[in-house]
Write a structure and sequence with these properties.
With about 300 residues, the chain is an alpha/beta fold. The protein has helices at about 20-30, 35-45, 60-70, 95-100, 120-135, 145-150, 155-165, 185-195, 215-230, 245-260, 275-290; strands at about 50, 85-90, 105-110, 140, 170-175, 200-205, 235-240. Helix 4 links the parallel strand 2 (about 85-90) and strand 3 (about 105-110). The longest helix is centred in the C-terminal third of the chain and has 18 residues, at about 215-230.
């Protein structure tokens, strides 16, 4: 891989109109989706979920449960899609791969000292390479927010590029941890850096801090993707993660994606939800559309 000098790239800070962004997001939230379009949207969102377990108390049993749910979302509802991927720590990648690889479900793994990113680059690269060797189809890395706040943007760029190289054929999702970046101007700039460094996806959050994904932050990231696409013709994916727990909000996100990027992004190749709890609400809404009644939460597995 040829190393690119960060300073040679045309990456410029942009003043983001926060009032304009918030007003546009308010319009997305005012939309109403009914009947067949709603069912289509609910199934589409379900197929975009990265079902995730990233806890210190994770066990093989919990990962097995997660993988079973990923491919068996509801036993009495025919025609449901699977989720897009399961996301686990590197030590569980091999197990997850053995359980879902024949189901059309990807295995994603966090890496690079998730969630803080506070470690040496050589360890981040080694962790990435080992996760890929274990069978990870996708790597979710975190950027070094401390370096970003110190103004060491070339370090952030080079680190992402190095991890991208270590991914080999695996796709790379770059987590900005937008709740720690400070403002929308910084979110746009960090998005540009990640995209130029080779990110296949840019992702809002680890889900470990608040605020996580918000519509204004996600819209700014989508606009960074759009601007890059207009300049280069290259598509980059987007993954909002954390804080999206109900079907209504998920449908508003899909509207935002369609109206900002277009229908080409409305599939799990280019858009994901990092929101495991969202799956159950989508399922409840789908059952409601079919039967006219909501099922109790007891009918759905937590993981």
């Amino acid at each position: 891989m040829t190393k690119v000098d960060f300073n040679s790239l045309d990456i410029r800070r942009k003043a983001v109109d926060q009032v304009g962004v918030e007003e546009r997001c308010a319009r997305f939230k005012s939309r109403s989706i009914k009947k067949d379009a709603k069912i289509q949207g609910l199934k589409m969102a379900l197929n975009m979920i990265d079902l995730t377990t990233l806890e210190g108390k994770d066990t093989e049993g919990k990962v097995r449960q997660l993988c079973h749910k990923a491919s068996h979302l509801h036993y009495s509802y025919d025609g449901l899609p699977t989720v897009a991927a399961v996301c686990v720590y590197p030590s569980f990648v091999k197990l997850a791969k053995s359980l879902v690889s024949n189901k059309g479900i990807k295995v994603a793994s966090v890496a690079t000292a998730f969630p803080s990113g506070q470690s040496f680059l050589k360890y981040k690269i080694a962790e990435t390479e080992e996760a890929v060797q274990e069978g990870a189809d996708e790597i979710d890395m975190v950027i070094s927010r401390g370096k970003f706040h110190q103004g060491e943007y070339s370090y952030v760029f080079d680190e992402i590029a190095s991890v991208k190289e270590a991914c080999g054929k695996a796709r790379l999702k770059v987590i900005l941890e937008t709740g720690e970046l400070g403002n929308l101007d910084a979110v746009y700039y960090a998005s540009q850096i990640a995209i130029e460094a080779g990110a296949d996806f840019i992702k809002t959050s680890t889900g470990k801090i608040k605020p996580a994904a918000t519509m204004p932050v996600s819209l700014v990231m989508l606009e960074a993707i759009r601007d890059h696409y207009f300049r280069t013709g290259k598509m980059v994916g987007m993954k909002p993660a954390g804080g999206i727990s109900n079907a209504k909000l998920a449908l508003h996100y899909l509207i935002m994606v369609k109206e900002t990027l277009g229908e080409a992004w409305l599939n799990n190749q280019w858009f994901r939800f990092g929101a495991s709890s969202l799956a159950n609400d989508l399922l409840k809404q789908l059952v409601k559309q079919e039967s006219g009644m909501y099922q109790s939460a007891n009918y759905f597995a937590l993981d």
